[in-house]
Amino acid sequence: ILGGGAGPRLYPLTKSRAKPAVPIGGAYRLIDVPMSNCLNSGISKMYILTQFNSVSLNRHLARTYNFGNGIMYGGNGFVEVLAATQTPGLGGKEWFQGTADAVRQYSWLFEDIKNKDVKDIIILSGDHLYRMDYMAFVDRHREVNADITVGCLPMDDERASDFGLMKIDSTGRIIEFSEKPEGDALKAMQVDTTILGLTAAEAAASPYIASMGIYVFKKSALISFLNTDYPKDNDFGGEIIPKAAADGFHVQAYLFNGYWEDIGTIKSFFEANLGLAKNPPQFEFY
């Protein structure tokens, strides 16, 4: 789980805390959403990567997810915080330079003895509000034998140009990426979303697919992308994944068609909190 964002657009809520430690819905923090999704999906091996203002995030994780000796999860579950430590790399001693670089600096952990049986790795963002069964995501990834599977949202004309969009072929394989396109470039990114399971009416209303910023990687592919194929690329969404697709690796789209909100600005934070008070609420914590 990527918890290193400084969250400047959420200032002053992020003045003394990391973005994933921002409170939501009263008693919770943003990081609780992906954590809860993991636990409810039966995933009990979690690393949280932290960088900016991480004191309150660390405190919250230690108090909330104390698994003790792991007996509750069959003895091998864990929640570990991985702080940015200026690990020497290609650019010398550096802090995390982006999403992929953060994972790269700790990629040696994937080959650690306690992770030797792990076949796939899910990369999650620490600041989105949604409920998702990650194992269905992983199962689809395994079913099609993909190197990378990208979680996507169906998107309408109005909001599509705010996101990184993707084009897919008739099997749901991603063949093209475009970052926040507008005008004719936007129209060119329309896809038939019935391929991913939408009804014809839903597909007509949402003819685009946008990346949610969550991914499943084959462990072997992830290690090779980070350290061998693209060692100088620091971002998953903008660099590594589009390059992997262009280089012929199998990059698959997986559609999530539920409530999803990126809590990136004060406005979206305010609206998401109000949304929790609706009856029925758009999102429930229990």
Automatic annotation (TrEMBL):
One example of a Gene Ontology biological process annotation: glycogen biosynthetic process
A single MF term (Gene Ontology): ATP binding
Main EC class the enzyme belongs to: transferase
Gene3D superfamilies per record: Spore Coat Polysaccharide Biosynthesis Protein SpsA, Chain A
Domain Nucleotidyl transferase: 1-277
Stated name of the protein: glucose-1-phosphate adenylyltransferase
Family statement drawn from the similarity comment of this UniProt entry: Belongs to the bacterial/plant glucose-1-phosphate adenylyltransferase family.
PROSITE patterns: ADP_GLC_PYROPHOSPH_2, ADP_GLC_PYROPHOSPH_3
InterPro entries the UniProt entry points to: ADP-Glc_PPase, ADP_Glu_pyroP_CS, NTP_transferase_dom, Nucleotide-diphossugar_trans
EC number(s) reported in the record: 2.7.7.27
Superkingdom: Eukaryota
PANTHER family xref list: GLUCOSE-1-PHOSPHATE ADENYLYLTRANSFERASE LARGE SUBUNIT 1, CHLOROPLASTIC-RELATED, GLUCOSE-1-PHOSPHATE ADENYLYLTRANSFERASE-RELATED
Organism of derivation: Mantoniella antarctica
Catalytic activities: alpha-D-glucose 1-phosphate + ATP + H(+) = ADP-alpha-D-glucose + diphosphate
Keywords for this protein: Allosteric enzyme, ATP-binding, Nucleotide-binding, Nucleotidyltransferase, Transferase
